[in-house]
Amino acid sequence: MRADLDRRHEPRRIILLGPPGAGKGTQADVIASRLDVSHISTGEIFRANVDAATILGLQAQSYMDSGAMVPDELTTKMVSRRLNEDDVVDGFLLDGFPRNLNQAEFLDEASRTTGNTVDLVLELHMPAEEVVQRLNGRLVCGHCGRSWHAQLNTTRVDGICDTCAGPLHQRDDDREDSIRRRLELYEQQTTPLLTYYREQGKLVPVDALGPIGTVNDRLLAALDAHAKTDTTARR
Ligand code: AMP
User: Fold this and answer.
1) Interior CA angle at 76 toward 184 and 22, to 5°?
2) What's the gap in Å between 70 CA and the centre of ligand 1?
3) For the segment 195-235, what is each residue's pLDDT rounded down to a tens digit?
4) In angstroms, what is the span from residue 98 Cα to ligand 1's centroid?
5) In Å, how far are 25, 74, 98, 125 from 22, measured between CA atoms?
6) pLDDT tens-place string over residues 142-197
7) Which residues belong to the active site?
8) Where in the chain does DSSP place strands (E)?
């Protein structure tokens, strides 16, 4: 079905929005490799900096551990640097950024200067009760960073990553108090972005409930629909 699509019309600059635990990281990996664009996860970049004990990591860690947002000044500086790297010229998939209106406006401004404006914003839509259940059981590989789940997405051997055989652990910010804080922040600060991008005609909501493969099919269908609309609009 996809073979007849003109790949030049596929979106190349995408934002993936959704509450923590909606599966953004897992889905972002699949979409980024399907479109052959770079997956940029601000959470991953911060975690790598914390692990490597860089200055940025030391500055970000206390915010992250308590489930708070890292200040915009640090975050936008880091994203700006990343968006100027060579691999991003052909497209990107942003996961975890922007998270508030200030960051969205920063991104719009940065894109105006580079001409790399966002084509599409996919919203992984999930009710809050489901989010808590998912985050409570989430396990992350300490080696490759892949996410698993104690009940919903299990590994062949308990505690060991199927992909790289690394050890699984719970993220520090997946404790219940941090989860609650992150959800509150999502409601207060990130949901206004849904209106912001809807008004720009870029928002496409996708149901995030169900098995990973089903959600992935829905996202790929949304990408196809966008490419078709774009092709029609150009005729
Ligand atoms: P995530 O992996 O996206 O859930 O992010 C983990 C943590 O990194 C968040 O709880 C924040 O502390 C921090 N973080 C990630 N992205 C951002 C962002 N765009 N703005 C501020 N803090 C962020």
Assistant:
1) 40
2) 7
3) 999 999 999 999 999 988 999 999 999 998 988 776 666 66
4) 10
5) 9, 25, 16, 7
6) 999 898 999 888 999 999 999 999 999 998 888 888 888 889 999 999 999 999 99
7) 24, 99, 138, 171, 182
8) 13-17, 38-41, 92-95, 120-125, 138-141, 147-149, 168-169, 203-207
Residue keyed to tokens 């790399």? 116
Ligand 1 centroid – CA 126 distance (Å): 18
Using one digit for the tens of pLDDT, what is the confidence trace for 116-126?
Answer: 889 999 999 99
Q: Ligand 1: which residues within 6 Å by Cβ?
A: 20, 42-43, 46, 63-64, 67-70, 75, 96-97, 99, 103, 173, 182
For the entire predicted model, the pTM comes to 0.86
Q: What is the DSSP annotation of 132-199?
A: HHHHHTEEEETTT--EEETTTB--SSTTB-TTT-PBEE--GGGSHHHHHHHHHHIIIIITHHHHHHHH
Cα 28 from Cα 8, distance rounded (Å): 20
